[in-house]
Amino acid sequence: MRISLILFVSSILLSCSSEAQIYPDINWATHQNPVEAGWGDADSRTFTRYIIDSTYITGLVIIHKGQVVLEFGDLEENSYIASCRKSVLAILYGKYVENGVIDLDKSLKELKIEDHTPFLELEQSATIKDLISARSGVFLPGSNGGDFRRLAPERGSVKPGSYWLYSNWDFNLAGYIFEQETNRNIYDEIEAQLVEPLEMQDWDRSLQIKNGNLEVSKFPAYHIWLSTRDMARLGLLMLRKGKWKEKQVVPQNWVEEMITQRTSHLEAQKNAPVLKEDGLDLGYGYMWWLIENTEDSRLKNAYSAQGALGQNITVYPEIDVVLAFKTKSDYRRRNSIQTQMNVIRKAVEIYNPN
């Protein structure tokens, strides 16, 4: 009788565990009754109408407990994900930080890094850790635009590690260093570490091309093209702390490191006052944005990969939800940062479990 009871309890625990850890196979599973799971039907329709009327989003999906509860637009189309690329690179770093190939405390001087503009002596002490947290203190122009370098203080006025500034020079160099230290191409690593184990449906290696003005800086931007539903797989991987089915794809402690606060929303807003207008308070980890200072329990501990025009992966750990959306850049349409923040907030306002 006792053995039977133990087996019964064990089966219940295993059942609960498998229910809580659902993953897609080749295709995503759709939840059969989102309303029963807490996703209001009328609220979902209102949200979809908002996406149609007030945004230029071309594809959006909400994943709850590993299953689709809402989708809109084209989820299969590969297009430019802009600065979400930085969060993808952060994921790739984990394997090599864990095995010691990449030492985050190595400085630019130790790495023998040079750009067209010579470094100041102080700048040479910036480390890989400073680069991936946007705290290098090196305020040189990147090979591509779309950052806050215009807000930078005078070169040499701050010590590396002491000042946050969202700068593509930092991020592009982080990609260059990744390849230098691992002897691996970033796109090959995306295939090996992410595309294959996550069974991404739409990955196209031929689309992945680095770009930038190499006369401005030696370090190109590692642009990435993904589909909305493959972006959602990355979000689910992060939500599951680097685990995919039975395999630990990314070290769990590295996932936790990426979303550990390196810069508070207060410091970010002080250094880039435009962030005060975004509608959500955003701190920064290792190339992931952290949602802070929110009274909505559904947003507690949430974090995002964010890109220009309207590219986004947001993870809501407290409610087991992933949101992914994008806007195809070819259409020459742009969602403001404020619109992106509205979508992040409105997406989970649909969810009211009772």
Structure description:
Helices cover 34% and strands 13% of the residues. With 354 residues, the protein is α+β, with helices and mostly antiparallel strands. The protein has a single domain, classed as 3-Layer(aba) Sandwich (Beta-lactamase). The strands form 3 sheets. A 7-stranded antiparallel β-sheet has the order 2-1-11-10-9-8-7, sandwiched between helices. The protein has a two-stranded antiparallel ribbon with strand order 3-4. It has a two-stranded antiparallel sheet with strand order 5-6. Mean pLDDT is 93; it is low at 1-18.
Describe what is shown at a glance.
This protein has 354 residues and is an alpha+beta fold. 34% of the residues lie in helices and 13% in strands. Pfam families: Beta-lactamase (PF00144).
